[in-house]
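Appendix B. One record, verbatim.
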Amino acid sequence: MNMKTKQFYFGMFIALVVMAFTACSSSDDLSEKGQVKELKLYAGISALKSPYNMEEWGTSINIGDIDADLAKESRFRLTDWEMTRTPADNNDWVGMSNRSIAIQAGGSVYEYTIDASGLLSATSPYYFTTLNSVNITSWYPYSENANSFSVQADQSSYANYEASDYLYGTSSAGYSTTDNSISYVHKTAKIKFNVTVTHSERLSNKNITGVTLSNVQRSASVSSGNLAANGSVGTVNMYNNVATSVSGTTSTAAFEACIIPQTSSIGYTISFGGKTYSGTITSRQYNAGYIYTIDVKLMAINVTINNHAGVDLGLPSGKIWATMNIGATADTQYGNLYAWGSIAVGGAAYDGTVISPTSDYDTARKNWGGTWRMPTDTEYQELIDNCTWTWSTYSGMNGYWVSSNVAGNTARIFFPADGCQDRNRRGSQGYYWTASCRNASPYQPWHLWFDVGKVWVGDDDEQIDERTFTCSVRAISN
């Protein structure tokens, strides 16, 4: 071998040594060179789907046998909206009570903390040991188990509510990348209840204190961040995100809870005024990343005052009307006929100009007590103007069904055609005393009068408004 050949092979040897050294340097363990680097990430919440809106109106829901001033009926409206809520409201990381997030990198799970700006860091973080990028899987709230998740049964506390909002994200982070980031999407669904209760001012406790869901699947297996309900059901106490606000005879409040995506017929129980009222939402699918808003309206339709039944017809004045006449023990009875201001059947008529509950001549107050009293002519006119009057036959009695015109209020009362003065015209006409008189002489009392084609407050064509005539009396209460 000549000198040139030896020089060539020597040069090749040196080149191979340099290439091998360079290759080893690029993949060497960086910890040996003091070049390890902590993984840091910035986090955000991705918008999910195009929002859509769908309404389902259910029939009135019977929510139990109840008494005095308590709700009897409910209607709901269901609306689906895109869910972009982070664990804190306003689509950011402010206000979180639990800031621990799981980061899975290099086959291990690390506990990271997120600050209000979305920066993720850890006291024992993942360190890059090579120049290669690393694939990241992350979920919130933090747990070492990546294969299962359960929402909290008691989400009435904000911490438990927040811990039930499962977020999931994936990313790839590089050693030399300065803006490593990850975006999360919601893998749970959220149910939101807006509750309105219309009640009487007589009710002392007007607070809506809670909503509990039932027949809810709370646990799921996790695969690639997707939650699959495992079939076990239970209850969920909702978070009261808007406290009760009371305005006159209306109380409002709002509640939220996160649930596993599922297809279920979910029940609910609303706690109001120290009692509970239950209903059921028609079976439907609850998808990951969506808010399902249910507007529930409870109305105090059936009430009991001093052991006598009344209904709230949703009148502008809020007055409660009795379901039967004075002297009757059921709405299938006619009741008694009274002279104007008479306390007993066959009693003498009152000779004053107006009957007040404290005058000792109020037939309703003296017979039923409590807050019951005789209606004024104005109150009868309100009943005519704000309700639907339908001539009908009920338990063999002709008369008018008087039904509420308020949407969702199914209350109605029956006025039998009771006749007057020894039951004259019974079955064809009705006569009901008011507590009011004409404003001028001869100061004759007004009454409600009706037949099959007409309803009127004042007097009828034959001037049957003499005080000594006997008519029916229907009670009213504030």
